[in-house]
Each structure stands twice: as C-alpha cells, then as structure tokens.
Amino acid sequence: MSYTKLLFQVDSGVAVITLNRPDKSNAFDDEMTRELLDALKQIERDSAIRAIVLTGAGKNFCAGQDLAAFLERQNSPEGLSVREHLLNGYNKIVTKIRTIEKPFIAAVNGAAAGAGLGICCACDLRYASEIAKFRMAFIGIGLAPDSGTSFLLPRIVGYGRALEMALTNELVDAREAYAFGLANKIFPPDELMDATMNLAKQLANAPTRGIGLTKRAFNRALVTDLDGALDYEAFIQNIAVETQDHQEGVNAFLEKRAAAYTGK
Questions:
Q1: Looking at the domain covering 6-204, what would its CATH class be?
Q2: At CA 239, angle to CA 235 and CA 245, rounded to 5?
C-alpha cells in the first residue's frame, strides 16, 4: 500500500513512521488512520523490522483528531457513531502499538494533544524536543478522554498529575514532561532525530524476543496484582530461556565477546 498521509521507511532494522499532514499539525483524518493501521500491520509481520520510531512532519507531533473532517462525517446524511469511530480507529492503533512485540519510540518534535497524546503514551519510550508540548485537550471542547489516555497517562505520570492535566487542559512543556516521567529524555530540536535513531538502532540490535516478552510482562503488570505478576514472569521466562537470543547472550558472556542477536 502506498501512503499519502504517512512517510514510511526502513533502514538497518528500524522503521520510521512520520505522520505527514504538517499543514494540519498532523491531525488524523480517516485516511491517515487507515494508513497508520496498515503500516503497523506491516511492522508486525516483517521480522526484519526490530524497532520503530514514530514522529510528525513539520513543527508538531500530532494534534489528535482533525475536527473539520470529524464534523463533516458527523453532519453527513449517514451520520457518525463516535463509539465506532474510536473502536475502529484510535483504539486499534493504541492496542497495536502496545501489543506488537517490538520497541516503539515516539520522537515528539512539537505539540502532542488529544489522540496524539494517547498515541504518544502508547509508545514504549518518548524522546522529546525541548520545544515539545503535551496537552490532554479533550476537556477543552467538552469531551471526555479517549485513545487510551485515561488508562496510560495516570500510569506514566501518576493519578494526580494526569487528572490535573485532564481537568484543567494544562499545557505541559518538555521540561515539565521530563520531570513528570512523560518524556524519557529531552533534546535540542536539531538533535532529537539523531538521538532517537541512535536508540532505535541500539534496540534493533538487541534481543527482540526478550524485548517483546518484556512488553508482555509490563502490560500484564498494569492490570494484575503482585502474585499475578510473579506468576506471569515465571511463565514468560520459560519462553525466553528457549530463544536463540538467550543462548547467544549466554555464549557471548562465556566467550567474553559482544553478542550478535538475531531477534529469534
């Protein structure tokens, strides 16, 4: 599938997805939603892709939903079920990012708001430009949270800070985001992509199966108790110990050399 609203490239095991509607602050319309879901399917199927960077074209990361496109559908003769819109769009995107067993890094180059913040939170790590800004945005137009923000944001920054962002529509700058734990690291704007790509290439050469199992463990730990987490750790460790990457890691340690992981 060729894309008109995304840029998609793969190099050295790293896929870079660039949301490409800079004139709309990379806000989502239906076509960009379909294209991102298709790109995520490709990433899931392609074993040569072992790390993913998600960023935005121009000066912003993603402003969330394109309201003009949304209102056009809502006011059409067919109407629009908001529930179906979310279930078939953002919910699938967030779920895919969380469950694809490869590392996702958001390179937050500017504003991330609404559904854009939800997708940012779904990524495993967030590197941000010093000019990046984060906003829940929903309450600003009388809406409740969606795109996973009510689940993910409190788990990243804590309940109190997340609720404050949701109720006040506070704009959080990059330094605050770093202090809250929303941004893992911040960089000058002209250094963001180089730093993100360096991390992505490092992760693309890491034991991919182990990373995937780690994501499984952390996802499960968000919704279970300590006994459940311990039991699940034992379950996935039983899988990890049988991987080629584990054997390579052990051999490299014993032979005092760098490991050459293949992601298997």
A1: alpha beta
A2: 145
Tell me what percent of the chain is helix, strand and coil, each rounded to the nearest 5. 50, 15, 30
With beta carbons less than 8 A apart as the criterion, state whether 177 and 183 touch: yes
pTM of the model: 0.93
Please tell me whether residue 207 adopts helix, strand or coil conformation: coil
Q: How far apart, in whole angstroms, are the C-alpha atoms of residue 90 and residue 62? A: 13
Cα–Cα distance for residue pair 178/119, rounded to 1 Å: 17
Which amino acid appears at position 242 of this protein? E
- Residue 39, beta-bridge partner list: none
Per residue of the chain (264 residues), give pLDDT as tens: 689 999 999 999 999 999 999 999 999 999 999 999 999 999 999 999 999 999 999 999 999 998 887 787 777 777 778 888 889 999 999 999 999 999 999 999 999 999 999 999 999 999 999 999 999 999 999 999 999 999 999 999 999 999 999 999 999 999 999 999 999 999 999 999 999 999 999 999 999 999 999 999 999 999 999 999 999 999 999 999 999 999 989 998 999 989 888 988
For the domain 208-254, what is the CATH code?
1.10.12
Report d(CA 3, CA 20) in Å as an integer. Answer: 10
The CA radius of gyration of the chain, in Å to the nearest whole number, is 19
The answer to whether residues 14 and 197 touch, using CB atoms and an 8 Å cutoff, is yes
Cα distance between residue 34 and residue 44, in whole Å: 15
Quote the tokens at residue 24: 């709309």
Looking at the chain, the domain(s) classified CATH 3.90.226.10 span 6-204
